Amino acid sequence: MSIKTAYKIRFVFTMIFLAVVTILVFYPFLYILSAAVAKGNTMTGLSCIPFGNGFGFTNFQALFTKTNFPVWFGNTFIISIVTMLGTLVICTVSAYIFSRFQFWGKRSMLTAMFVLQIIPSFLAMIAMYYVLYWMGGLNKIWGLILVYIAGNIPYNVWLVKTYLDAIPKNMDEAAIMDGASRFCIFTNIILPAIRPIVIFLAITSFTAPWLDFIFPKLILRSQSKYTVALGLYNLYNEQGDFGTFCAGAVLIVIPFVLFFLATQNMLVESMSTTLDEDL
Amino acid sequence: MIQLKRDESASLLVLLSSALFNGLSHILYLKQYFKGIILMLLEIIMIRFIPFFFQSIIAFFTLGNNSGNSASIMINGIVSILIVALYVTIYIHYIKEAERDYRFYCKTGVFRNSNKTLSECIQGSFVVWGILPSVVLVGILVIVPLLFAILAAFTNLSAPANIAPGRPFSWVGLDNFIAMFGGQLSWSSAFVRVFLWTILFAVFSTVFCYIGGLVLAYILHHNNFKFRPVMQTVLMLPYAVPAVISMLVWKTLLNGSFGVVNRTLISWGWINEPLNWLSDPFMAKFTCILISLWAGYSYFMLLLLTSLNTISPAIYDAAAVDGATRGQTIRKVIIPLLLKRTTPFIVLGFTQNLNNFTSVFFLTEGNPALKNTTITSAGGTDILVTWLYNLTFHIMKFNYASVIIVVLCIILIPISIWQFTKTDMYREGR
User: Fold this and answer.
1) Inter-chain residue contact B362 with A133, CB threshold 8 Å
2) Within a 13 Å sphere around the CA of A92, how many CA atoms are in the beta-carbon half?
3) How far apart are the C-alpha atoms of A259 and A254, rounded to whole Å?
4) What is the predicted pLDDT for the residue at B394?
5) For residues B168 and B63, is the Cβ–Cβ distance under 8 A?
6) Is B248 in contact with A182 (Cβ distance < 8 A)?
7) Residue of B nearest to A165 (CA)
8) Residues A197-209: what's their mean pLDDT?
9) Of A213, B172, B285, B387, which has the fewest Cβ atoms less than 10 A away?
10) Is residue A276 over pLDDT 70?
């Protein structure tokens, strides 16, 4: 057997392996899509073959008429936007100060933030409940937003600060010489220079509330305040309405996938900068 | 403004006056009027709240003696202690600073920062107001809850008597830790079981995801074929899709009686009886790892693809010149290189899997039930964080849940400190 045939055989096996993996990865997505457009809405009746139950829009109709999906969607959207804006403003300003100013207490604050970032904020969920009760933030959307923003701060301040540290200080020093105010330097020089990381931060803080389940479950009590994740989970778990759940899931998955495709390169970029540091 | 001699004779005077009333020496001797006024205002505000701080801290130690709202008493206590501690450090800092500025004056004959205009001072205070939102939010919604949760491990905050907001609870010392670590058989056996499974789950899912990602990244990197970009995108889908949704779909697919997986395997004749993917304790653990591989390999695949792209082709050539076979090159050169570069990401993946609530909760909800599940609420696939959820939401044993938080912090914080020693800030500071 020549080397060339050996290579060919190996290539064929590799391709078969890759094809099997791809099918295993892709099948759940086909299944969810076919369940969403199927004519029934029970799990038991669904065919194993994708789209074996025909096409119809009854599940989507049910989603918009029988459930509060539009309300959940609206709530999550508001929560995400406000969380994103809050996180952006607070984290970039703090990171700017940590990166460019020397002041008393800086080192201990940064150390504390670094150590805290490894502890996911949902660990303290019980305490969060009592703290929000103490603040009057239970069953309030602003309570949830504050929890999200606060949870975002330790990690993201470090992220932006590290990015800013790599940007030469000549530019802002020159501007100080010219008599520009700190605020002016921040908006006109710093923000444009850190645009990529700001976009990255905007994306991660915007998408996180769509996926989170624990905090909405903990904080939001009334159905009218539910977020998408909480509403869909209830639809699946308590009402057992699989078809409607899938219809809602599809409406969330599609924008997420498009979003990912649009931002994939940025993720790769942020990875390669971290990888380069170790070389 | 009182003129001081420049022979350092007035050190004690400066120290005493600023210790007596923070900011006094800044105004009297050091010509730092703006700073002095701010410090004095701060002290006046603190003095105004002394009775509140005093009461809160006293009440914190008794938690209201079994009456009143213990949770709020505890939070008030924590907040008061934090504020007082912070203020005392600020106070001491400015006493020292006043003395330092006086010595500066002795040496140079000019006052440090004395000719600052008001607008310059406002510019300087940019640091303070810029950082204040972060400090307040992290303080109230990250540090206070964490301290509360850790302290709650030393109380009897549990259902049915003590949990509703507004109800009293009290300190119980180490009782919860004793119960969890050996005092009560059902609790300690559940703890050991869940703890070991959490570590196993985190190790296996991280290792498998890494290996899976590595294999696929290697294949995609070294084979050029027509559908490669499409295939890469499809292989990235599990990363792009919210895990809540994909886990619930897998739960449906793997359902014992009507799940698609069992039906398909039966119709192909591979199995005769439906497999208990999620209802057999051992099998369910296996399924958890398998599905977390499905959900987690894509991140490592993208990372390793990126990493492979940065490896120079010269390395392959050099290995070939030295007579290494293809397999040897991969084993001895490429994999060690990748491992070295991606170590921080592996550690990150491990800590995320330790807290991988989504993968376990939505797939199995911690089920199947074992023999002490009704008492402890810890099922066969529960990891520490999902058990924490059950303890919080189902049986409301907040005291035991807090013990778990303490355990998780003990695992996580050393990892975090280890990572911290790798940062530039730490290296520069040494």
Assistant:
1) no
2) 23
3) 8
4) 87
5) yes
6) no
7) B424
8) 88
9) B172
10) no
